[in-house]
Amino acid sequence: MVEELVIAVIAAVCACGLYAMAAARVVRQYERGVVFRLGRLQEGIRGPGFTTILPFVDKLHKVNMQIVTMPVPAQDGITRDNVTVRVDAVIYFKVVDAAEALVRVEDYRFAVSQMAQTSLRSIIGKSDLDDLLSNREKLNQGLELMIDSPAIGWGVQIDRVEIKDVSLPETMKRSMARQAEADRERRARVINADAELQASKKLAEAAKEMSGQPAALQLRLLQTVVAVAAEKNSTLVLPFPVELLRFLERATPAEAVQAVQAVSGAVQAAPSPPADQPAVAAPTGPTGPTGAATTADAPDAPDATEPGPEPGAPEPGAPGLAAPGLTTTRPKVSSVPPSVPASAPPLDEESQKRQDAQPV
């Protein structure tokens, strides 16, 4: 009897131990336990620590209450200004209601991931490229609101959403680089022009001060010469007189025209040869001293191929000896340059006398 009683007690103890082991559960600090008894949700949420359930009747589900970091896959989209971009993000969320997270949605992690992807594509289509690159804080807030609205019914709270990277096509990168370069060049030119304006104002003030003391300009010129000579180079500096420039500035175009007209009048007023003395050309051939024709430019001049007058015949141009039926005209003398060429021999006085004494 005693042995059978001992065996029964040992068997009961073992059964109790097995039951306790099957019913005992440990919930960690960052977890919450949700009990389903025969498939029905129990009211209480099991907190962290040791807890028990009915074996083979209750089923305990542990839900992690920590903040979950979930990367959002890169999404391709077209912005509002028709630029193709590729954007990826990261989302931070946590479960605030363990029962709702298990009952309302099949897999809250997958649901949050899909909602983040669709919201990211939507926010890309509603934004400009400049907003994606420079105004990310506003886009993050809008994306957080878009994901948090349906996630509240799942017992999930969106902590924050961050856009990580925005990938642009290579052509767009080059265009943006050229735009940035042009903008920087524009600002550099504006700054340079502003500096020139300020410098011109200062130079005008300096010129106004120097105009009262003409010697100050000469001293400044000497200082410039000294500064150039101190560099030990082979440059020769010759100061140009400023007074000459001022004289040229005072000369007007009308004065220059009057001077030219005066010179032309002096040339035209030069004395011409007497009417009874024929024009003598340099006897250097049919082409003259310099290869140009020396014949008189008369309106009825005979052809060069016709024979000239005989040696004893009177000249048509001589006064009082005009042939009957012929009009006595004075040949037009072509303009001869003031300088006689070296090839034309000078006429001496004896030759002039022989021509005057020629019988008529």
Q: How would you describe the overall organization of this protein?
A:
The protein is of the alpha+beta class. Helix content is 44%, strand content 18%. It is built from 10 helices and 8 strands. It has helices spanning 2-23, 98-103, 108-125, 129-134, 136-151, 170-212, 214-229, 242-250, 253-268, 349-356, and strands at residues 24-27, 31-37, 40-46, 49-52, 58-64, 68-78, 84-95, 156-167. It has a 3-stranded antiparallel sheet with strand order 3-2-5. Strands 6-7-8 form a 3-stranded antiparallel sheet. A two-stranded antiparallel sheet has the order 1-4. The N and C termini lie far apart (198 Å).
Question: What keywords describe this structure?
Answer:
360 residues, alpha+beta, 3-stranded antiparallel sheet, 8 strands, 18% strand
Order of helices and strands: HEEEEEEEHHHHEHHHHH
Radius of gyration: 59 Å
**Helix content estimate:** 40-55%
Q: How far is it from the N-terminal to the C-terminal residue, by CA?
A: 198 Å
Major sheet characteristics: 3 strands, antiparallel
Poorly predicted segments: 273-347
Strand runs, count: 8
Percent of residues in beta strands = 15-25%
Structural class: alpha+beta
Shape: rod-shaped
Mean pLDDT: 74
Total of helices: 10
Spatial arrangement of strands, main beta sheet: 3-2-5
